[in-house]
Design a protein that fits this description.
Shape: globular
Oligomer: single chain
Number of domains: 2
Distance between the termini: 26 Å
Largest sheet: 12 strands, mixed
Number of helices: 12
Length: 339
């Protein structure tokens, strides 16, 4: 699906910026692609939330906000955004105001799925509720020693005894990783979710931080992928896939080896991604929060609160439904099937 583009600000400045990046562009489509590229670059540079990488990507309408940017998924009269707009620290307030003005002109209600600080929104009369907690690891001091990460350390050892090795994603393992992912997906009757959860794409994984687990015979039996944010100073976990017959410790090895590698490379922090707060049996069927939190807690992260924001309290149900529908590209009924 082609990414739609709104340029918020000076159109003439946008044309000049596009010409600098693409001197030979000839059409509106190329101009829009240039603006989208500028917006995605702004997200990569200025996004400081672990959900920031999901402000850009397929099916997003990209909005350029001065030096910053944001992208949203349209659901009826709602604009669902993963998190805060990405902007320089001294321009965050202006970027938020400009974004809200753009959405108001489009007659869209904003819903921010996972913001780091609710106060800027409350100051603008909006309604914020706790929605999730983010699992963040300080990589400067990361190691597997000590009691808190003992289970991970033992899992890594067990994976080694089972013949598991961890390699970077490459063309040599792409076909095997695709087959493994398909086998994993076959166990998920609701299909792949979206919005702040990626989908398997060999081309995109080739340019991402992705690690693949191979068994003793060289068969791909698991993978994890990570997105960069905060100008490359941080990583956030995205795909977690394991073959049905893979050793239980495969995922421990994939995540632990990734974190050790990032730490050695000087990356400052890594997020194991947000886990929604418990919201009852129906929500648990859509996304297994309890088991996911128990698993991530093995890595001893620091848990930080995140908020969902809607225009007013009366918009809460509509905003939640817009976010849920954004996660379920095949429809809400499919997403609610047992996974």
């Amino acid at each position: 699906m082609k990414t739609a583009v709104i340029y918020a600000g000076s159109v003439a400045a946008g044309h000049r910026a596009a010409q600098r990046m693409h001197p030979s562009y000839q059409s509106v489509d190329r101009y829009q692609a240039s603006v989208a590229s500028l917006a995605e670059a702004a997200v990569a540079r200025w996004g400081r939330s672990s959900a920031s990488p999901f402000l850009a990507g397929p099916e997003r309408t990209m909005v350029r906000l001065g030096a910053g940017a944001a992208g949203y998924v349209r659901q009826g009269r709602w604009a669902a955004l993963a998190t805060d707009p990405a902007a320089p620290a001294d321009a965050e307030a202006d970027a938020l105001d400009e974004l809200l003005e753009v959405l108001a002109r489009e007659s869209l209600h904003p819903v921010f799925a996972c913001v780091t600080d609710p106060e800027p929104y409350r100051l603008r009369g909006m309604h914020a509720v706790p929605i999730a907690e983010d699992a963040v690891i300080d990589l400067a001091s990361f190691s597997l020693t000590g009691a808190r990460r003992a289970k991970v350390r033992h899992g890594l050892s067990a994976a080694g005894r089972a013949g598991i090795t961890i390699v970077s994603f490459s063309p040599e393992v792409a076909d095997g990783a695709a087959a493994m992912s398909a086998a994993w997906l076959a166990t998920k009757r609701g299909g792949e979710l979206g919005f702040t959860l990626g989908r398997f794409d060999s081309e995109q994984l080739g340019g991402a931080d992705c690690r693949v687990a191979l068994d003793a015979g060289g068969r791909a039996v698991g993978l994890v992928s990570w997105h960069r944010y905060d100008a490359g100073r941080a990583r956030v976990l995205d795909l977690m896939r394991r073959a049905p017959d893979a050793p239980n410790a495969t995922m421990d090895a994939l995540i632990a080896e990734s974190l050790l590698g990032f730490s050695a490379a000087g990356v400052e922090r890594a997020s194991l991604a947000c886990v929604p707060l418990p919201r009852g049996r129906l929500a648990e069927q859509l996304y297994p929060t309890a088991s996911l939190r128990r698993y991530k807690d093995k890595f001893a992260p620091a848990w930080g609160p995140r908020w969902l924001v809607v225009p007013t309290r009366r918009h809460l149900v509509g905003g939640l439904l817009a976010v849920i529908r954004s996660y379920c590209p095949r429809g809400l009924a499919a997403g609610l099937r047992h996974n």
